[in-house]
Amino acid sequence: MTTTPIEADLLISGAEIISMNPAREVFRDGALAIKGNRIVAVGKREALEQSVRARATHDARGFVLTPGFHDGHIHITGDPLTRGLVRRVPDQDWGDNLSKWVIPLFKAQTPSDEALAAQLSALAMIRHGTTSFMEAGTVIHLDAVMEGLAASGIRGRVGRWVEGRTYDPAADPAIRTNEAIALLESEVAAYPDDGETLLAAWPQLVGHSTNSDEVWLAAKSLADSNGLKVSAHISPRASDPEWFLANTGRRPVEHLAHIGALGPNICLTHLADTDMAEVELLAETGTSAIHCPHAAFLGGFGLAKKGLHPEMMARGIPLMLGTDGMAADILSSARLMAAAYRDARDDQDLLPATKLLELMTVDGAKVMGWEGVTGALIPGAKADFILHDTRTPEWGGPLFDSVGQLALSAPPSAVHSVWIDGRQVLESGRNLLLDEEKLLADAVQAGQAIVARTGLPIRTPWPVL
C-alpha cells in the first residue's frame, strides 16, 4: 500500500529536537517539516525523510532545535534608547525614580523614537530566541510601534499607556476614566486579534494604583468579548498593598477579586509582595502570573525573602517569565529565578531544567492563550522555532542531556537561526529583515536627542575624563 507523502516547503533535518509535546519527547537525529506557517510533521529524521516530500531541506546536524521562547513582560519602548542613563541616586526613593526619571524619558519619545525602540527590542529578543512577547503597556505611539514591529517579523501583543485615575483632587475622575476606556476600545478595534495575525493590541493597563475600578472592569470586558488577555503591573513592592489597603481596605489581588476583575484572561506582572490569601484567589479564579526575576532582584523587591512564585506554581496558577526589558534574553531570567528560589528555600531540586524550559515555552503559550499554537513542536502548531548551535565550549561536548545543557549551561548567544510563522528571521546570529548597522546608529542619535529634550542630567558613578 502506497502512502501519500506529506507535502512541505522545508524539512529541517538532523537536529536534536526538544519537542515540548505532551510526552516531552526529544528526537535525537530528528527532523521537522513546515508548510506555510505551520508545522506538518516532527519526529526521527529517517522516518520523515521517507514520509515527507519537501521543496527544500536544511541540514541542522550539530544543532538543538526547540520551540521559540516567550517573553511575557517587556517594555519595548522607553528603555531601549536610554538604557545607559543613570536614573536615580540613593537619596531618591522609588516614587522619585518613576516620576522624575522613568516617566519623563518614556513620554519624551516621538513616534519615530518609539518605532526605533520597538525594532531594537525585537532585534534583541530574536537574537536570543524569543519569538513571541507581550508588551508591558507603556507604548504611547501605537501606530508607529506596530509599523516598526511589522518589519521585524516578530509575534507580539502590544498595548497603549493607559492610566484611568486622576491625581489632581480638582479634576473630574469620570472624564479620566472615560478617556481611558475609549483608548482601550480604540486600540482593540484598530489592531484586532483574529488568532492568526502576528501583531495585535490587547488591553494593557499600567496597573499599580493608576486605574479606577471602572477601567479595570472595562479592560476585562473587552478581553471577554474579543478573546484577548489583559496585563497589568501589580505588587512589585509594598507600596501597592499599602495604597490598596489605605484606599479600599483590601490588598491588591483581594480588591481585584472583590470587583470581579480577575479571571483566566487576566495576567498580573510581578506579584512579589503577595500573601497566601492572594495566591489562593489567583488559583481560584485562574488568573495568570508573570514573573520578572531581573526586575525583582535588581529592583530590590525582597523577593528571596517573601516571594511566593513556587507556591503559585504548586497551586496550578499559570505562570510565565518576563524580562521587563532588564535582560536581553529570557533564558537568563529562567536561570536567575531558579538560582534565587533554590537558594532562598535551601532546595537544590526546586525548578529543575525541565521546568525552566517549560516556563519559556509551553507555560508561556498557556498564559498567552496559545496552547497548541506556539510553545511546542507539534503538527498544526505555528512554525516558531530556534536552532541552537551546540558547537561551543559551554554546551560541553556530546549531547548527553540536551534539555539540561540548554537550560543550565548553554550560552544565550548560541542561538544560531530563528523562524517565526514559518519565515526565517535570523541566520548565523544575523537578522535577515532588519538593517542592524543603521538601526544601532539611529538608536545612538535618538537616545541623545531624547535625553536632551527632557533636560535630565547625564550622571556617571565615577568621573569620566
Automatic annotation (TrEMBL):
**Which controlled-vocabulary keywords does the entry list?**
Hydrolase
- Taking every annotated instance into account, which residue ranges of this chain make up the domain Amidohydrolase-related? 64-425
Q: Please indicate which superkingdom the organism of origin belongs to.
A: Bacteria
This entry's Gene Ontology molecular function terms read: hydrolase activity, acting on carbon-nitrogen (but not peptide) bonds
One Pfam family hit: Amidohydro_1
Q: Which family does it belong to?
A: Belongs to the metallo-dependent hydrolases superfamily. ATZ/TRZ family.
Name-wise, this protein is Amidohydrolase family protein
